[in-house]
Design brief:
There is one protein chain. This protein is α+β, with helices and mostly antiparallel strands. It folds into two domains: about 1-125, NADH Oxidase (3-Layer(aba) Sandwich), CATH 3.40.109; about 140-290, 3-Layer(aba) Sandwich (NADH Oxidase). The protein is built from nine helices and eight strands. The strands form two sheets. The protein has a four-stranded antiparallel beta sheet, covered by helices on one side. It has a four-stranded antiparallel beta sheet with strand order 5-6-8-7, with helices on both faces. A hairpin with an 8-residue loop joins strand 3 and strand 4 (about 100-105). Helix 4 (about 140-150) runs antiparallel to helix 7. The longest helix is centred in the first third of the chain and has 20 residues, at about 60-80. It is globular. The chain starts with 12 loop residues before the first helix and ends in an 18-residue tail after the last strand. The relative contact order is 0.18. Bound molecules: flavin mononucleotide. Flavin mononucleotide (FMN) binds near residues 63, 66, 129 and 200.
Length: about 300
């Protein structure tokens, strides 16, 4: 349906479709896909769709904004892949709350080869929902993951042995606390087992308290993506960093599982911040290793995402 979309600046309609489809392949909390797009003659606008917010799991819509940031990173990478540069502004109009970013594809300059490579990993990246097998992660790859976060003005804390033990206990406790909350459970069921083009296929296995326990040597690699401040723009940046880290892991053949419960509960999030040294605001807690391939999550069609 590429030809149905008009051009945006130097991007032909078919490229615009590719770019929007890439954005829509981003991860999102409960696969809510809380975004929509508006194209003008020169720009692509990214809007947050607050009707898809999760009042129980994501009380302050932090993860909604993070998810939109991940979509924005894909959009930027795909613009590079189409041979243009993405000039952009975050939250350009404070009087338009839903407008999270504007991206203007410009034909001048050379696309960044690193972004083009990351764009090639977009269709391959997928969240692992079950347990991960521990897999040694070479120091060089850890360095690449750190630099991926830094390139997007965020920070990746690689948890040390003692921090991993404490974080594993915190994950188990926070998951239990969420599952004891009837409101959380109802919301989770509402977004699970759906036959719609969103939500999580099957039963929401992903929110069962994962068993991560053992000695520091037995525990998987756990990393905390943090931001330096915790406002809306910082969260949008953190979402872009999150996706850059996930795509970097995909290119390195590493699987990633989210362990979000401790960042979703305010008191656990404070504990996690302390545990990780107190310098950054926890935005996403990730486990890296080797997982079993899962069935793919569905996505809305691009035409349904246009405003
Ligand atoms: C901010 C955020 C938090 C997430 N938290 C979890 C989580 O706690 N557990 C989980 O299994 N997946 C989590 N996910 C992954 C989503 O469920 C997943 O991205 C979505 O279902 C789409 O699937 P895909 O990533 O395989 O494309 C999270 C994703 C985002 C962006």
């Amino acid at each position: 349906m590429g030809s149905k979309l008009g051009a945006v600046g130097p991007l032909a309609g078919s490229d615009v479709e590719t770019v929007l489809r890439s954005a829509a392949l981003a991860p999102s909390v409960y696969n809510t896909q809380p975004w929509s797009f508006r194209r003008t003659d020169h720009d692509i606008e990214l809007h947050g769709d607050f009707s898809r917010a999760l009042p129980e799991a994501d009380r302050d819509r932090r993860e909604l904004v993070l998810s939109c940031g991940a979509a924005l990173f894909n959009l930027r990478a795909a613009v590079h892949r189409c041979g243009c540069l993405p000039a952009g502004t975050l939250r350009p109009r404070l009087d338009r709350l839903s407008l999270l970013a504007v991206v203007r594809p410009v034909p001048t300059g050379t696309p960044d080869p690193a972004m083009v490579r990351l764009a090639s990993a977009i269709p391959r990246r997928a969240t692992i929902r079950g347990a991960l097998a521990k897999s040694p992660v070479p120091e060089a790859v850890v360095g690449e993951l750190r630099r991926a976060a830094e390139a997007e003005q965020a920070w990746l804390v690689v948890l040390t042995g003692a921090q991993r033990v404490a974080a594993a206990a915190l994950i188990a406790r926070a998951c239990r606390q969420q599952l004891e909350d009837p409101g959380f459970r109802t919301e989770r069921v509402r977004w699970s087992g759906s036959t719609r083009p969103d939500g999580l296929p099957g039963i929401a296995e992903h929110r069962r308290a994962p068993v991560i326990a053992g000695t520091p040597d037995e525990l998987p690699l756990l990393v905390l993506l943090g931001s330096f401040e915790d406002g809306p723009v910082d969260r949008l940046r953190a979402g872009q960093a999150l996706q850059r880290v996930l795509l970097t892991a995909t290119l390195a053949d590493l699987d990633v599982a989210f362990r979000s419960a401790p960042v979703e509960l305010a008191s656990a999030r404070r504990e996690l911040r302390e545990l990780a040294g107190g310098a950054v605001w926890p935005q996403a807690l990730l486990e890296l290793g080797k997982g079993r391939p899962m069935s793919r999550t569905p996505r809305h069609a691009v035409e349904d995402l246009l405003r």
